[in-house]
């Protein structure tokens, strides 16, 4: 493998790491303030205990998110100097606003974590809300910067120069809304099912079920609602891509031949050499309909794009299948939760809790898969249609060492954080009701 | 608007050096405490720095964003040639941040605390050293701006500029500055015996700082480092250094008298003078390579970008600064509004 490949792997790995902590950092504060509010309303000490336990989780995840994010801010330049040289000024606006949002978040976090019994109760609670809102705002802003890489606007490209820059138009690029909506929902789906799963496991083991059922309920409600909206928003994203990035759409669907009334493939094994897909299930006309809202619409196939502008088809196709599969599953799980509100006997069944334990990691797997679709599907471009990834990479050789180092450091970190979370739960369970 | 952007660039640099520096320094002070005092130092750091340490480090991110948006050509040189020390800085920041939070938020207190503590102390020392070395590399005159990267060795392009005695001295100087800031800050946060400890520490680190600064200048002069030579021949820079030397006298007395507030502001002022002296002689040529001096203001992006960034910074600053001020005040970091009883500080 070359330097470029290692630089890409490192980018993918560090972003894939950061996104987990970023999602939790965006969503956990909301659980925390709901629990906190319930404590203020009911004065049930279980809620106070839960709030404080979640607050420690927020602090640990926040810091891991912050340090990995700081590393990313350097990395964008260190790995892709040519990209940042030209793109930096254009997408400066979301990043400078994001900087402001981080600051607000860090200030609010300082108030919240250290403000117990020091600040007025209402104000203290309110600082928790600010953490959540500014977290979501920073998420939306970075995704808008990524949207610009998919749908570059707000400049004129003349003789290799990027001129007439309009930062506002770059911020509000055509992809920003669909991507930001889908990502925000994804953060809620992934974090909610993960947190709900952790607490469902404790209920399943019959460890302080009173407490953990309360926690489960707060988390799963967010997740169930978001999981319902997720496929709708995904459909918007797909329609958007059909128009702006037809190659990506074709790669997602492993669709080689240009045709009308195109079937949708479910599953399937892609052979990139032969340009065929075997072992698939076909739904007639569905792709034409999903992409353009018309069963007879024409969808351009991969064979009709220049060979050197094709992304790796198999990876993108599999990742897309994984995301959509999980999306469907989690929507059904959300439905099950709402049914269990009516038929309370379900809550007594062991399998009900076990099911949510198995669902716990799926949301995050879908998040990673979704980013693979977006980012790998954009290849070989870093700025779609304007700059290739190979033109952007750093001239410094030896990227493999840097990549291996990040892998080791982040794996150790991830293991430590998991271990710390287990200790939090152990302590929580050790209390006698 | 360019001036607004430049103001925020220098402002966030100053605040990162001051606040981030005090934060790193706290770990260095802990590292150099006797085993008996480590515990006290640790608890004091948590109480004082805890609420604000996260915010202190965002200045670095702001600095970075301003650089890449408004000074892309300049940023480009930094990220290509300082790749290696930056990786080390990032490693240090990561270790330090997580160790700080692990040791205070781990639900079970057991032997793992020993790990967190050592990780925190050691990364607190090496991170500012590598930061200082990176800055040293920018002004050290050893960077080779290559047209054809393959005609130079890895060592010449990516190691030599930052890996030499001059940059090491700059790194140590910055680490000493951090420790000096932290110990002086902590004087104001403690009482009785403990305060005496910090005031002694502060005195030691002041001496270390002055000595290192002296060695740095002599070494740079002897080795004919352009930056140092120009610095010495520039009356304004020299004046600023002279001012900071003069200020050492009241600072020294304030430290001896364990004065809470005066020592803190005098220490901050020292940093302002040192930073000003360092930047003034060469501003805006803050990269000095083997061949030429690069101006910060070279290759600026179009006017619309600067305009937009300036407006964003003004709005952001308007939202953030009052909030930050309130946070620091609420947790007693800013003492100026308290009544005289602190001032005497016996
Ligand atoms: C919990 C996570 C999750 C789930 C269940 C889904 N997605 Fe997703 N998807 C993401 C998480 C995600 C993501 C990680 O958030 C992405 C990556 C980039 C982005 O904006 O969102 C994404 C990207 C993404 C894209 C590419 C957008 C682009 O490149 O601009 C499409 C077309 C879809 N999704 C479509 C769907 C559909 C039709 C789903 C049906 C169930 C679905 N997603 C479920
Ligand atoms: C956190 C969620 C994200 C994940 C998981 C992610 C994932 C990836 C992956 C897998 C690649 C490698 C693609 C390949 O080389 O085949 C990549 C590349 C890249 N991503 Fe993302 N991405 C994320 C968000 C972003 C954002 C928000 C930005 C910028 C604002 C960004 C900027 C880049 C750049 C510059 C590259 C390198 C160039 C390229 O390969 O196209 N990414 N990312
Ligand atoms: C789609 C991808 C991304 C999303 C959704 C996202 C979201 C977030 C969120 C919500 C946080 C707050 C951390 C927390 O509360 O735990 C955060 C932190 C951070 N992110 Fe990302 N991020 C993404 C990609 C990036 C990229 C590409 C960069 C670098 C340019 C970056 C830079 C940072 C920085 C510097 C922080 C730390 C801020 C602090 O100290 O509070 N992020 N991110």
UniProtKB/TrEMBL annotation, chain A:
Pfam families the record matches: Cyt_bd_oxida_I
Q: Which domain of life is it from?
A: Bacteria
Q: How does it sit in the membrane?
A: Multi-pass membrane protein
Which cell locations does it reside in?
Answer: Cell membrane
Could you give a GO molecular-function term held by this entry?
Answer: electron transfer activity
Q: Where does the protein principally reside?
A: membrane
Among InterPro entries, the record links this protein to: Cyt-d_ubiquinol_oxidase_su_1 (IPR002585)
Q: Which family does it belong to?
A: Belongs to the cytochrome ubiquinol oxidase subunit 1 family.
What name appears for this protein in its UniProt entry? Answer: Cytochrome ubiquinol oxidase subunit I
From what organism does this protein derive? Salinimicrobium profundisediminis
Q: What is the lineage of its organism?
A: Bacteria, Pseudomonadati, Bacteroidota, Flavobacteriia, Flavobacteriales
UniProtKB/TrEMBL annotation, chain B:
User: Main localization of the protein?
Assistant: membrane
Q: Which GO terms describe its biological process?
A: aerobic electron transport chain
Q: Where in the cell is it found?
A: Cell membrane
Coiled-coil stretches noted in the UniProt entry, renumbered to this chain? none
Give Gene Ontology CC terms. Answer: cytochrome complex; plasma membrane
Q: Does the keyword Membrane apply?
A: yes
GO terms for MF = electron transfer activity; oxidoreductase activity, acting on diphenols and related substances as donors, oxygen as acceptor
Listed A to Z, the keywords are: Cell membrane, Membrane, Transmembrane, Transmembrane helix
According to the record, the segments passing through the membrane are: 6-32, 53-74, 80-102, 114-139, 159-182, 203-222, 234-253, 265-288, 308-328
A Pfam family annotated for this UniProt entry: Cyt_bd_oxida_II
Report membrane topology.
Multi-pass membrane protein
Task: Cite the InterPro entries for this sequence.
Answer: Cyt-d_oxidase_su2
Superkingdom of source? Bacteria
What family does the database annotate?
Belongs to the cytochrome ubiquinol oxidase subunit 2 family.
Q: Which named protein is this? A: Cytochrome d ubiquinol oxidase subunit II
User: What is the organism of origin for this protein?
Assistant: Salinimicrobium profundisediminis
């Amino acid at each position: 493998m070359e330097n470029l490949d290692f630089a890409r792997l490192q980018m993918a790995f560090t972003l894939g790491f950061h996104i987990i902590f970023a999602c939790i950092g965006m969503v956990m504060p909301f659980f925390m303030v709901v629990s906190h509010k319930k404590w203020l309303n009911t004065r049930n000490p279980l809620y106070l205990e839960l709030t404080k336990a979640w607050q420690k989780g927020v602090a640990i995840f926040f810091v891991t998110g912050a340090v990995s994010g700081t590393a990313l801010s350097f990395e964008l330049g260190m790995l892709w100097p040519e990209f940042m040289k030209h793109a930096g000024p254009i997408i400066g606006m979301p990043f400078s606003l994001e900087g402001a949002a981080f600051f607000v978040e860090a200030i609010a976090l300082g108030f919240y974590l250290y403000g117990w019994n020091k600040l007025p109760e209402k104000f203290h609670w309110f600082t928790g809300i600010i953490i959540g809102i500014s977290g979501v705002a920073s998420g939306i802003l970075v995704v808008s910067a990524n949207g610009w890489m998919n749908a570059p606007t707000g400049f004129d490209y003349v003789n290799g120069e990027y001129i007439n820059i309009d930062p506002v138009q770059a911020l509000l690029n055509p992809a920003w809304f669909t991507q930001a909506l889908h990502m925000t929902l994804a953060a809620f789906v992934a974090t909610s099912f993960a947190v709900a799963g952790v607490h469902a496991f404790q209920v399943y083991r019959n460890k302080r079920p009173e407490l953990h059922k309360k926690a489960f309920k707060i988390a799963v409600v967010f997740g169930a609602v978001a999981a319902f909206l997720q496929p709708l928003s995904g459909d918007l994203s797909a329609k958007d891509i059909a128009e702006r990035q037809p190659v990506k759409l074709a790669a997602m669907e492993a669709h080689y031949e240009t045709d009308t009334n195109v079937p949708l493939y479910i599953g399937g094994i892609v052979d990139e050499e032969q340009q065929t897909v075997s072992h698939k299930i076909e739904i007639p006309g569905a792709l034409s309909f999903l992409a353009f809202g018309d069963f007879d619409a024409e969808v351009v196939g991969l064979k009709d794009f220049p060979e050197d502008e094709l992304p790796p088809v198999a990876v993108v196709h599999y990742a897309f299948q994984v995301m959509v599969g999980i999306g469907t599953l989690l929507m059904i799980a959300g439905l099950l939760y709402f049914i269990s509100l009516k038929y309370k006997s379900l809550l007594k069944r062991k399998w009900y809790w076990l099911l949510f334990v198995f669902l716990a990691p799926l949301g995050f797997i879908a998040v990673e898969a979704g980013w693979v679709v977006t980012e790998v599907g954009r290849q070989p471009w870093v700025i779609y249609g304007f700059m290739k990834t190979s033109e952007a990479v750093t001239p410094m050789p030896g990227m493999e060492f840097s990549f291996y180092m990040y892998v080791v450091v982040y794996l150790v970190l991830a293991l430590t954080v998991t271990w710390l979370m287990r200790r939090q739960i152990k302590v929580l369970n050790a209390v006698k009701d | 608007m360019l001036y607004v952007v430049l103001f925020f660039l220098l402002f966030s640099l100053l605040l990162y050096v001051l606040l981030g520096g005090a934060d790193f320094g706290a770990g260095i002070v802990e590292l150099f405490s006797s085993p008996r005092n480590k515990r006290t130092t640790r608890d004091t750091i948590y109480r004082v720095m805890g609420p604000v340490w996260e915010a202190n480090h965002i200045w670095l991110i702001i600095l970075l964003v301003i650089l890449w948006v408004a000074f892309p050509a300049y940023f480009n040189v930094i990220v290509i040639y300082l790749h290696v020390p930056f990786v080390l800085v990032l490693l240090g920041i990561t270790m330090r941040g997580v160790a700080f939070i692990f040791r205070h938020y781990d639900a079970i207190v057991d032997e793992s605390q020993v790990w967190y503590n050592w990780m925190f102390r050691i990364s607190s020392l090496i991170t500012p050293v590598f930061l200082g070395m990176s800055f040293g590399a920018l002004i050290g005159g050893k960077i080779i701006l290559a047209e054809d990267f393959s005609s130079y060795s890895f060592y010449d392009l990516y190691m030599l500029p930052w890996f030499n005695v001059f940059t090491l001295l700059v790194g140590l100087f910055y680490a000493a500055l951090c420790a000096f800031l932290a110990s002086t800050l902590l004087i104001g946060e403690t009482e009785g015996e403990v305060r005496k400890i910090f005031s002694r520490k502060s005195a030691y680190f002041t001496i270390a700082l002055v000595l290192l600064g002296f060695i740095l200048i002599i070494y740079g002069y002897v080795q004919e480092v352009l930056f140092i030579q120009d610095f010495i021949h520039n009356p304004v820079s020299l004046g600023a250094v002279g001012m900071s030397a003069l200020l050492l006298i009241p600072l020294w007395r304030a430290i001896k008298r364990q004065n809470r507030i005066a020592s803190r502001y005098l220490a901050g002022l020292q940093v302002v003078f040192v930073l000003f002296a360092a930047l003034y002689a060469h501003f805006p040529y803050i990269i000095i390579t083997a061949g030429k001096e690069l101006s910060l203001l070279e290759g600026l992006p179009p006017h619309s970008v600067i305009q937009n960034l300036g407006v964003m910074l003004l709005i952001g600053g308007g939202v953030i600064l009052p909030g930050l001020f309130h946070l620091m005040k609420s947790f007693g970091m800013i003492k100026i509004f308290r009544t005289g009883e602190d001032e005497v500080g016996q």
